[in-house]
Write a structure and sequence with these properties.
41% of the residues lie in helices and 17% in strands. It is an alpha/beta fold and 372 residues long. The protein has 2 domains: 177 residues, Rossmann fold (3-Layer(aba) Sandwich); 158 residues, Rossmann fold, CATH 3.40.50. Strands 3-2-1-4-5-6-7 form a 7-stranded parallel sheet, with helices on both faces. 45% of the residues are buried.
Length: 372
């Protein structure tokens, strides 16, 4: 039986998406987007998430079936919780499930195995190496049926500590896709309210340690010394919001840096920028880089982890030596003073995204993997 979109749904009675992360980020956006697209083609899908988390709030607003759970890193040690979850899977007739966190693999993975789910898929978006432990060897070899890596670097990181951790054929690379099909999230406002001046630089992401936003403050000092007229917009929230604001204030950057907080209309945000900057210490297949490139923005980013798979140096932007603040400022200044180069890089980035990171293509690859 095929639905109106042409997908064979006979063998897929119900798909589960299990994500126990409490905060909203790239993985949560992927699960929400995937659930939304499954619902759009009339595939039964249920999202499992931490009770009260942002992911479940969004799925609920979109009319997607969701179940709240309370999970921690030791939940897999509680046989009663594992059996209860397995019974829930069986009651819902879940036939394929996609897991998000390592703790989800242990807890929901065991429950899925107990429930007899045929497709137990781990989607990994972190380039942190997988530890070569007895538990991981058992999970990767005997519980998981498939693994999704969202970049080549992610795949390498899975096998880095043990090339025999799992069968290489179990790992499928499915890049993130740029998604402009989701309903706009207008509940929180958050659009930039500051008056901008000069060239408008921007970044977006969770304000946490791995995003390396301290480098933006150092970069801003360098740009002021270069007498560049600019505004830097930072979209996002996180535990380092107040410390970063304080550092920016102490550096005398209040007139140059605007902390926008949560931005609901990211299309509008990207449209307000002249170029995009990312200073992360590591990334998987970065949604914000792809969205910025799709919006026609050149990108300046540190040359690490999966970033070179997205940003092509001197073609769609500049890759900077990791943690080299001076080179970061130099490349940003070069683009800031050359509007024609920004347009050239921006068009190249759009072409790359359309050819390699199409949302429908990524979704088709996922559905093919589930049906396989």
């Amino acid at each position: 039986m095929r639905n109106q979109s042409g997908y064979n749904t006979t063998e897929i009675s119900h798909i589960g998406l299990f994500n126990s992360n409490r905060v909203w980020g790239g993985g949560e956006k992927w699960h929400y987007s995937t659930a939304f697209m499954m619902k759009k083609i009339n595939v039964d899908v249920t999202v499992f998430g931490q009770t009260g988390c942002e992911l479940l709030k969004r799925t609920h607003r979109s009319g997607i079936s969701s179940i709240g759970i309370r999970v921690n890193n030791t939940s897999f040690l509680n046989p009663f919780k594992v059996v209860k979850l397995a019974l829930t899977f069986k009651k819902l007739n879940i036939q394929a499930i996609i897991l998000n966190l390592p703790s989800d693999v242990k807890f929901a993975g065991f429950a899925a195995k107990l429930a007899g789910i045929k497709k137990i898929i781990y989607r990994r978006g972190s380039p942190v190496f997988v530890r070569n432990t007895l538990m991981n060897r058992f999970l990767f070899r005997h519980v998981l049926t498939d693994i999704i890596a969202n970049s080549e670097q992610i795949k390498r990181s899975i096998l880095h500590n043990n090339s025999k951790l799992t069968n290489d054929g179990k790992i499928t690379i499915i890049y993130n896709g740029v998604d402009n099909l989701l309903p706009m999230e207008k509940n929180s406002g958050g659009e930039p309210s500051a008056r901008t001046q000069g060239v408008v630089l921007g970044t977006a992401g969770r304000l946490s340690q791995e995003k390396g936003m301290d480098w933006l403050i150092k970069m801003a000092r360098e740009l002021i010394a270069k007498k560049l007229d600019f505004t830097l917009l930072i979209a996002g929230e996180g535990p380092l919001m107040e410390p970063l604001k304080q550092k920016s204030h102490e550096a005398g950057l209040d007139e140059y840096i605007c902390f926008c907080g949560f931005v609901a209309d990211m299309e509008k945000f990207y449209g307000s920028l002249d170029l995009f900057i990312l200073t992360s210490a590591w990334e998987g297949c970065s949604n914000v880089i792809l969205e910025a490139m799709y919006s026609g923005l050149p990108v300046v980013a540190f040359d690490n982890s999966s970033i070179p798979e997205m940003v092509r140096d001197n073609i769609s932007g500049f890759l900077v030596r990791n943690k080299d603040g001076r080179e970061l400022a130099d490349k940003v200044e070069l683009l800031a003073r050359d509007p024609l180069l920004r347009v050239q890089f921006g068009k190249a980035g759009q072409k790359i995204v359309r050819e390699k990171y199409d949302q429908n293509t990524a979704f088709n690859q996922l559905m093919t993997l589930i049906r396989r």
